[in-house]
Amino acid sequence: MEGTVTRIRSVLCEVDAGGQAYVCKARRRLVASETGESKPVAVGDRVVLTPTGPGEAVIEEVLPRRTKLSRRSPGDVRTEHVIVTNVDQLLVVCSVRRPPLTLGIIDRYIIAGHSGGLDPIVCINKMDLAKDRAEYLDPARTYEEMGYSVLLTSARAGTGLESFKSALRGKSTVLAGHSGVGKSSLINAIQPGLKLKTGPVNAKGRHITAGVSLLRLDFGGYVVDTPGIREFTLWDMKKSEVAQFFPQIWELAPRCRLPACLHLEEPDCAVKRGVESRELPASQYERYVRIAETLVENPRVPRATDVEVPAEQIGRKKRALSRRKMKQVLRETGLEEVAEEAEEEPEPGPA
Ligand code: GDP
Ligand code: ZN
Fold first, then answer.
1. If you measure from the C-alpha of residue 255 to the centroid of ligand 2, how many angstroms do you get, rounded to a whole number?
2. Cystine design at 222: which of 19, 38, 64, 172 (Cβ 3.0–4.6 Å)?
3. 156-214 residue pLDDT tens
4. Is a pLDDT exceeding 50 seen at residue 58?
5. Cα–Cα distance between 146 and 251 in angstroms, integer?
6. Would you say residue 320 has pLDDT above 50?
7. Hey, which of 135, 185, 223 would you mutate to test ligand 1's pocket, going by the most ligand atoms within 8 Å of its Cβ?
């Protein structure tokens, strides 16, 4: 039997299979140490399950993922935390004030979304708190210029909710962003009571309600809220891959002297020249540098559930590195051997 994981709470999860909800545990061989992930399954996963009793089942297998949103596990640089899988789009929510708007976290979410095959959208909430229109229009322009749709909302004043609803209609969407920006309020504003619905109880009579959950929208589509994600660090990203997410940097890069130029300390860098000549906004370059410098590269072994994102899907205006350029970068960074080993290593698959 196949189903979709709709909620997770500690070792238990809820799976919807043909309209019937099951409280499940995952088979021991799917535990974290085998998959390299912090949890054996994620919300959104398509799974194969075997019923073990009324409303109870065990997860035998996780099917390959179409998309995913991952972060580095807090506290363990070698572990991936898959937040949600198989949804269509990522709505990055931020607020004008309380908490203040910071571009860095929006950038990181957008990059993670793209690399997991999701279409990012930016939502600037709490418009009602702005003292000046520029407080939301400036960041909106920043992301529109990069080719993203931007929604301006106020869950409190009820502004922009029709556009917000249209963006979600008929799609599956994960809402991400700092805690307190208004993700829950936005969801409740478009469908009151949605977040209050509880799942079935497990054998001990406990409800499975908290945490990341997949919610069905009455007007069509699904939404996933991500409460409790306090930090968001990129996972499985190389420094050489970051530039492709900043269209103006990516355009200048072929003119750098070194083919593997990271536009940081390298000599004769067209990107740095672009900043000096004001062809490239200094703010975009600073955002790039912040991400490239803080990135921890984690060479890893491919898995059966891995998402394959075709290069042309990475941004409307962006192109992925060509295979040749990628090989060259790998050679220069000394990561090539790791990559080849990884390709050969068989998946530690189900017995
Ligand atoms: P979440 O952590 O992202 O889910 O944020 P919540 O939805 O829990 O909202 C955090 C706080 O911000 C709550 O006190 C909300 O009432 C408030 N809030 C949410 N949206 C708005 C808004 O548009 N304007 C204002 N002024 N406050 C809001
Ligand atoms: Zn350069």
1. 8
2. 172
3. 999 999 999 999 999 999 999 998 999 999 999 999 877 655 444 445 544 444 578 89
4. yes
5. 12
6. no
7. 185
Contacts of 301 (CB under 8 A, 6+ apart): 36, 342, 345, 347
Does the C-beta of 126 come closer than 6 Å to ligand 1?
Answer: yes
Q: What are phi and psi of 261, to 5 degrees?
A: -55, 130
Ligand 1 atom with least separation from CA of 175: 3
Ligand 1 centroid distance, CA of 180 (Å): 6
**Does the domain spanning 68-225 belong to CATH 3.40.50.300?**
yes
Residue 138 and residue 165 in contact, taking contact as beta carbons nearer than 8 Å: no
H-helix or E-strand spanning residue 178: none
Q: Distance between CA atoms of 92 and 264, rounded to whole angstroms? A: 28
CATH 2.40.50.140 correct for 2-62:
yes
Q: Which DSSP helix (H) or strand (E) runs through 92?
A: strand 89-95
> What integer pLDDT is reported at residue 151 of this predicted model?
98
Q: What's the CATH number of domain 239-294, 3.40.50.300, 2.60.260.20, 1.20.58.760, 1.10.40.50?
A: 1.10.40.50
Q: How far is the CA of 190 from the centre of ligand 2 (A)?
A: 45
pLDDT higher than 50, residue 54: yes
Is 0.90 topped by the overall pTM? no
Q: Write down the domain spans for the chain.
A: 2-62, 68-225, 239-294, 311-344
* pLDDT band at 311; cut points 50, 70, 90: low
Is 226 a pocket residue for ligand 1 (Cβ < 6 Å)?
Answer: no
Q: What pLDDT shows up at residue 299?
A: 58
Q: Is the CB of 125 under 6 A from ligand 1?
A: yes
Answer yes or no: is the C-beta of 244 below 6 A from any ligand 1 atom.
no
